[in-house]
Amino acid sequence: MTDGFSVRDVFWRARVDLLRLRQTRAIAFPNDAGSQSASLRWLIGRLAEETRRAGPGLLIVRVPGLERGAAAPPPAALTDATAAHDVTLVDLTPAVERYWASDPSGSLFLAGDGHPNRTAHALIAAELERELRSRHLLE
């Protein structure tokens, strides 16, 4: 972009505006799976177009629930949308499940906050590195 804002800035601001609109109930947003799937497919399509114009392709990292037992596979709408637009989806569910299997008394989030802690950030970084190396995008 030429005005000094990155694509990330634009999408972040759009997200904030959308959340603000949803809270005002000014627009009725459909809650049915078909509408949500179509919306996600459209959004990922636009993101993929923007990133391809900038050079690299889009890579989406999905972080599941980090609490013990909360990790679940990504929704079909997400996997369908990423597949439809040839977008790389890195789902961290298997890594989170492996962590809990190996360290049942551990923690992946900040107490009272819910954000990923240092251990979770290391897990995310390791999975990203593995994915990028497997695609020969990182040496």
Structure in a nutshell:
The protein is mainly alpha-helical. It has five helices and two strands.
CATH class: Alpha Beta
Question: In the CATH scheme, what's the topology name?
Answer: Rossmann fold
> Any guess at the CATH architecture?
3-Layer(aba) Sandwich
Helix content: 40-55%
**Tell me about the biggest sheet?**
2 strands, parallel
Order of strands in the sheet with most strands: 1-2
Strand coverage percent? 5-15%
Q: Given the helix and strand composition, which structural class is it?
A: mainly alpha
Mean pLDDT: 86
Extended strand count: 2
- Series of secondary-structure elements, N-terminal to C-terminal: HHEHEHH
* Number of separate domains: 1
Count of discrete alpha- or pi-helical segments spanning 4 or more residues: 5
Unreliable segments (pLDDT under 50, ≥5 consecutive)? none
Gap between N and C termini = 29 Å
| Radius of gyration, whole Å | 17 Å
Shape: globular
Q: Mind explaining what this structure looks like?
A:
With 139 residues, the chain is mainly α. It has helices at residues 7-24, 33-54, 76-84, 93-102, 118-134; strands at 59-62, 88-91. The chain has one domain (31-134): Rossmann fold. It contains five helices and two strands. It has a two-stranded parallel ribbon with strand order 1-2. Helix 2 runs parallel beside helix 3. The longest helix has 22 residues, at 33-54. The model has no long low-confidence stretch (mean pLDDT 86).
